[in-house]
Design brief:
The protein has a single domain, classed as Sandwich (Immunoglobulin-like). Strands 1, 2, 6, 8, 11 and 12 form a six-stranded mixed sheet that branches. The protein has a four-stranded antiparallel sheet with strand order 5-4-9-10. The chain has a two-stranded antiparallel ribbon with strand order 3-7. The chain has 138 residues and is an all-beta fold. The protein is globular and about 50 Å long.
Length: 138
Amino acid sequence: MWLGVPGNGTAGSTYDQLELSNISARTCTLYGFPGVSAAGPDGRQLGTAASRDYSDPIRLVTLRPGATAHAVLRLVDVGNFPPAACRPATALGLRVYPPNDRRPVVLPYPFPACRKTGPVYLYVRTTAGGTGIPGFSQ
C-alpha cells in the first residue's frame, strides 16, 4: 500500500489516493471499502475511524500480479472542529485494512487528527480498479 501524493485540496479538505498494489504471484480480488484510521505515536487509533463515502458503486476489483487499485481518501481539516470536541493531535500515519483483510498496514504519513472520537475527519470511497491519479481520480 502507498499514497499517491500530493493530493488535491478544496476548502477544508484534502483528497489523497490510497493505492493498493498486488505484489504477489497470484491474482487477487478486492471488494468494498478499505478500513482506515489515524495512527498515533504509540500506534493506537486516534479519534474516529474513516466513514464510508458511498458516492461510487461497489464493484469487484480483480488485480493480476503487479496491478494496482485505489480508493479516494478525504482528510477534513480538524481546525473545522471545536478544540474541546476534537483534541487536536498529529497522527504519524494511516492504519489501513485492505478490503476483506484482517491485517492492517501502517503507512507513515503525518497529518492533523483528532484524539477524541466523535468528529469524523476521514472519509474513504470504495476500491476502484487502476492507479489513482491525484486531481483526476474520483
